[in-house]
């Protein structure tokens, strides 16, 4: 079968991200002998021209659309990508009668609502490798296709239970048809996944919904083989996209030991949970090329950490930060301001803790994006912030009423008074233009590592 895979993601903030999900999908399809083409719209200058050219030349029998992001998750400068997706679907419909299949994390977060909203034939919820392949086989044989918990069909009732598919074992991606090099140059890195799943239950988080609560690790040898291939292609910086790189710690250590043994010439960074970072593990990580650590800290206030139901304590944040400082590894804390119970005092506590720790950077996000199926959704409904039938395919944010509408103002004032704070929603120390200028110097890795070197805080006053 001729299958066209389209990545609709055109977001370039904080950098263009290699469409890893589609590369995972490409592997089983190519192994089964299907003819695959990819249209990656990230760098397209003219979406309709590029898409139409491929549609006319390739004449696909089936089209798979990958929807990674619904919106930019950035309050108050929130942007929904749904119009772009609708446009891509319209172009496909005008040029071909081939069925359209949609999948990806963005789609899987609200599958029914998006299925109703978008003009598509099939929706695949969760990890697409196996379900997509089954669908292709069924269509090829001309079998009648029935809905299943992970497969939604046009003009058929939705399945009673909708459940994201989980691939096991996880086979590696096939990057042959993708522009790995372009992402390295414009985005500063390649990306790799070593496991899926998160067993924790932070109230706002979708990761356990997307990947399940049980951790499924890949074989260390397969991951290191993938790293070897990337390095061979010239990739010298990698981001581990795992929900938590250092959990389980024994797996992370085993992987690092293997990377050290294989003497890879590669640098990398990853999301890290403060609970499970030890000096020993960080030593191995550093030895294996780790240049930067991103902590999903959320808050410096003990009360807010408890409210978010984080799996760690303020003491873990302090201890793990000290380990990074001691071993001289760059680290940043991601903070979320405005969750349930946030007030002026808890904000102050977060700033105080960050002042005390003095990390390489602090990245602050304002408001909590409300996602279907999360505890945050239930809290928001019970407090009247949204209704049962609010369309969460669009960005709605929870902001603690105790802040009296002053969240942005409060964070702006405090963040501007500090050197290492990045606030994407207020464009403090981050704009697309700034990032693209810095990347021209062929700088690899996430750019938060550089924030302390800026002479003065750069901010674009809101509304200009
Ligand atoms: C790692 C990560 C990042 C890293 C990426 C680093 C890098 N170099 O790759 C960083 C921190 C930079 C980042 C940034 C952003 N991210 Co992010 N990120 C993730 C994370 C944790 C993993 C993504 C990943 O690579 N997964 C691995 C691949 C293999 O999985 P996958 O893409 O989901 O693909 C599978 C399925 O979805 C499906 N599938 C995919 N495509 C298709 C297509 C078809 C046809 C089918 C059938 C199936 C299918 O099958 C695939 C294989 O199993 C997810 C959360 C999560 N746990 O999924 C959020 C997530 C994708 N990010 C999200 C967002 C919003 C963003 C940002 C916009 C946030 C911001 N303002 O910075 C930016 C956008 C960046 C960009 N340019 O696009 C959201 C997207 C949903 C939404 N709210 O819109 C997610 C889901 C987190 C969330 N809040 O729920 N991100
Ligand atoms: S925030 Fe991190 S630890 Fe918490 S549920 Fe999400 S992925 Fe798991």
Task: Describe the protein in words.
By secondary structure, the protein is an alpha/beta fold. It has two domains: 152 residues, Rossmann fold (3-Layer(aba) Sandwich), CATH 3.40.50; 274 residues, pyruvate-formate lyase- activating enzyme. 36% of the residues lie in helices and 16% in strands. The chain has a seven-stranded parallel β-sheet. It has a six-stranded mixed β-sheet with strand order 2-1-3-4-5-6, sandwiched between helices. The protein has a two-stranded antiparallel ribbon with strand order 8-9. The longest helix has 14 residues. It is globular. The model has no long low-confidence stretch (mean pLDDT 95). The site of cobalamin has 47 residues, from helix 1, strand 3, strand 4, helix 4 and helix 6.
